[in-house]
Amino acid sequence: MLRKLPLLTALAMTLAGFLLMVGFEHAGADTTSSQLQLQFAWNAEQTRAVLASWSDAGRVRVTKGIYADTLFLIGYSTLLAQLLRATRRKWAPWLAWGVLLAGGLDAVENVFLIGFIQDAIDTRFSLLVSLMATLKFGLIGAALLYLGTGFRASR
């Protein structure tokens, strides 16, 4: 059985982080900049092109969104891991570790993204960042599908 306080804390962190992240990225008149553009740039040239297309205000907004993403990644990885553990299904423990790995990948990815924005990390690491983002979203998607099929099957 799930303990309510850790579950509610993880849920609150997930929601707060998500709302802050989206709020920062959609604040102001110029909202064409998004961390997703950097996550899936795939190469140094595309990363430089994305960064060149952003205004200074856009860079600041995305940076704030990435900081808010830290709260979000702690929340979603903890929340999904707890929900998976509670299912007591065959693959749930492996997927719980997978979503914790996704949270770790998200954190490393955020360091690279901020480094790209501040011109402190070489954009040649763009492929690595895009691969981490792809694996992260894949692990999260697999966990959500697994949880969704479990809830449907338990009816």
Task: Report what the structure shows.
By secondary structure, the chain is an all-alpha fold. The protein has one domain (4-150). Helices cover 79% and strands 0% of the residues. It is built from 6 helices and no strands. It has helices at residues 4-25, 35-39, 44-53, 56-87, 92-117, 126-153.
Quick tags:
155 residues, mainly alpha, 6 helices, single chain, 79% helix
Layout: helices, strands, pairs:
Layout: H1 4-25, H2 35-39, H3 44-53, H4 56-87, H5 92-117, H6 126-153
Helix pairs in contact: 1-4, 4-5, 4-6, 5-6
Beta strands, count: 0
Which residues form runs of ≥5 with pLDDT under 50?
none
Number of helical segments? 6
- SSE pattern, N- to C-terminal: HHHHHH
Oligomer: single chain
Relative helix content: over 70%
Q: Estimate what percentage of residues fall within beta strands.
A: under 5%
Largest beta sheet, briefly?
none
Supply the number of structural domains.
Answer: 1
What is the CA-CA span between the terminal residues? 18 Å
Q: Which structural category do the helix and sheet elements fall into?
A: mainly alpha
Q: Rg, please?
A: 17 Å
Mean pLDDT: 85
Tell me, what's the shape? globular
Task: Provide a short characterization of the protein structure.
79% of the residues lie in helices and 0% in strands.
